[in-house]
Design brief:
- With 89 residues, the protein is mainly α.
- The chain has one domain (2-88).
- The protein has five helices and no strands.
- The model has no long low-confidence stretch (mean pLDDT 82).
- The chain crosses the membrane at residues 25-45, 51-73.
- This is MFS transporter.
Length: 89
Amino acid sequence: MISTTTLRQSVTPPRLLGRVSAINIMSYGARPLGSALGAIVGGLWSAEACLYLAAAVFGVQALVIWLSPAVALDRQPAMVGDEAVAARC
């Protein structure tokens, strides 16, 4: 948890830290939904089916990231408006 927070803070421009942290906190709300889905699938079918579902969903997430343009980036692009801030400094 600490390492992901440190990474997020190091790659996020200071003026966007509040927004990024808020989105991260809101994502914690998905955990109970995932747990409920796991309980339903596990209860109706089996724990094995629940694990297969989790692996399939993880695979879809990995595929989305793998196919995104972010994979080909050599470095983080400059944020819009950073040029103006850099010029003032």
